[in-house]
What does this fold into?
Amino acid sequence: MRARWAVVLLMAVGCTKQGASSRETRAADPPAPAAPPKPAPPPSAPGLDTARIEKLTGAKGTLSEKDGVFKVSVPRKDLAVRIGGVKMTPPMGLTAWAAFQKMGDHAMVMGDIVLTEDQVNPVMSAALDSGLEVTALHNHFLWDNPKVMFMHIGGMADETTLATAVGKVFAKLHATEGGKGEAPPKLAIDPAKSKLDAAKLDAVFGQKGDYKDGVYKATFGRTTTMHGVEVGNAMGVNTWAAFAGTDAAAVVDGDFAMLESELQNVLKTLRKANIQIVAIHQHMTGEQPRIMFLHFWGTGRPEELAGGIKAALDTQSK
It folds into this structure.
């Protein structure tokens, strides 16, 4: 009996040593390779889904934690702009951007879109058609080649709607790069040789225009107040349109005077009529009510051009 217990004891001791040896072997094995680090998520802004904004706009953003603003940017690296021999780069003012900020239950967006001349109107239409407001169009430089324009946008809605709209603006910007935008046709028009039917244009506008030196011009006055004095048509507070050419092919250029509340409808109506917007700005400061001005250019049959301008005039308050 004692012999059997001795055998059992020896077997148990042997198993224990074998188990310890096995554990030591496993401990000596090299560790499994670590999983690759996940890309860092975009920084978060209070109340804004920054990852979704980046996805919908197709642009990378940066967060201003202090201001709670998330800003996406599109550097215009495709442009080779020079001013007086100076090579201009995106950090020198050639970066399109849109900044998002939470505003109660909604969000606000403001932005500045960097465009070549042929990109301005197709990108503007993309902004307007997406529900954004276009609030200014102007240049930031002189002597730049190629010419660069800057279009300011804004809007208030939920962040998904705003980011989707900005994404469409950026998409149209990319689609029109490299001279794929919209430029007016070249027309050999000399006002001295104009042959316009002024009566037809009078009928469209519902008033008699001035036809002199080959140019038909219609003017529509507005009024505002500056320093307690009413100023109007004779002081330059007016909309005007000047036509030259023939009844088959004409050009129109002009200036539109609007209240701030009228700007968006005028823009949409002129673009629908295929009239190009070439500037949006103010001519005065301190006037009440504030008057905005936009400059336009169009080519085509004169009656059709006049019809587009008249439709824009009809959107204004009387």
Summary: Helices lie at 2-28, 50-57, 120-129, 159-175, 198-205, 263-272, 302-314.
